[in-house]
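Handout, section B. The chain below has 418 residues.
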Amino acid sequence: MNVFKFGGASVSTTERVHNVAGILRRYASDTLLVVISAMGKTTNALEKVVEAFYRKDKEEALRLFEGIKESHRAAAADLGLADTSFLNDFFTEVEWLLHDNPVRDFDYYYDQVVCVGELLSTAIVSRFLNEQGVANTWLDVRDIIRTDDNFRDARIDWEYTAQRVRDTVRPLLAAPGAIVLTQGFIGATDGNESTTLGREGSDFTAAIFANLLEAEGQTIWKDVQGVMNADPKQYEGAQWIRELNYREVIEMAYYGAQVIHPKTIKPLQNKGIPLYVKSFLDPEAEGTIIHNSQVNGLPPIIVYKRSQVLVELSSRDFSFVGEGLTAELYRIFETLKFRPNLTQNGAVSFLCVVDDHAEKVDALAHHAAQYFDVQLRRNLTLLTVRHHNDELVSRLCGDSGIILKQQTPETLQVLLTQ
């Protein structure tokens, strides 16, 4: 039994959905649980719907959502699905909310709206596969994965979820060659409110199922041969890595590499389940295997995080920041559900680098101003290099100004002007 995960790029066009069918036919003798993301850039489009709704521009929110409805009807029709009425319940699920007025936090509405992308995508692909002779059972993952109500970064109720997997999912996979097709990224509270597991959380969903089903392996199908040592769109010299261990991938994800969702590895490592990253464009290619063994001779791992903000905090009365003020700051981070990407302590100052989520940065500055003088510096880039060398770092920094630098024998981080 294996778990497959197909990202949004793998189902972004009619041709690529046909390609997914071809890959599943190649594994016809395997029992599979298949996790599929929202099509293409649907999540981005749904985020704009939420933003319009939350600023009380109801007409704009409905107009944007109408475009999403039409694009999914068109996608279904292009795949030969003449009757698209099976999508209507998902459309209604969002529209009843958009006709209301926001009275709760933004994150709550984000999860209720954005989750529909995965539901629409999987409903279309599941029906198409069945009509193509690739028999599968569609499953609403919100009936399986139980979470708390920490919207946009929900935590899994492992005990309840494990019971649902035993009672509902395992029987559907009992027959050789059975396929269950479900969504990534989403879950639900015990009150049946939709939640999300963090941006790009479909990898994590697949790992949850791999762990609870004790799968032989998990495969993530991407548009590259496997894991690269850098994003090819940001670094021309990016190269494929044949083999990695769990720890290295966790480090890569922690520093912002977009290869694997940060929470994915632990459920796999706990059960010793190997993770494969393969190309859906070239299924014959070797790909990358990630496991628990030592791997030597890795190339430098390069991660760029753009749109960073340097938050400079200084104590007003020259008190040492370590005397309680740092603890106050981390309590603020915890309250805002906001994580610094880099921190540095001085005697009477504290520097932190965060993603430029305007709402959270402003809230951080507001709360921190109770204890510190606060200055913000935007439009920065955080460069992280693991297994670094001086020549490479100098070349990567180029003519950019260096604002902040931290270094260990394994990892170097530099904050640069863009």
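Note. The longest strand covers residues 301-315. Compare this with the example in section A.
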